[in-house]
Amino acid sequence: MAKARGSLYRQPKSPFWWMSYYVDGKQIRQSTKKGDLKEAQQVLAEKVVVNEVPDKRTIGALLDGLIADYENNHRKSIDWVKRMVRVHLREPFGNVKIDAITKQMVLDFMDTQRKRGEIGRASCRERV
Fold it and tell me: Would you say residue 50 has pLDDT above 90?
């Protein structure tokens, strides 16, 4: 594993190690979510190797962008998209950070929707 160029430190009252590293001259500080120093060093090394600024936006912001795109391009299905976002997506994913979404979260959501009979249905009129 590459040697990390950054530092680890403790925040008062936090059980976790925090890391500080630079991407394109911009300092990034965030929790490693690890209490063990060796594990925290590994997280820092992975972040430095990836060398990307973490995306702090939420899925809700992406959904807002999707709706805005449909509105700006005068798409005929704008009402359908708004309904799908409001009824199905906003509540389970709206506050989730983009970097935090996992394949398992999406699979669990799909499984829940399938059990409720929502997947494969042409419309969501019953829940509107």
Answer: no
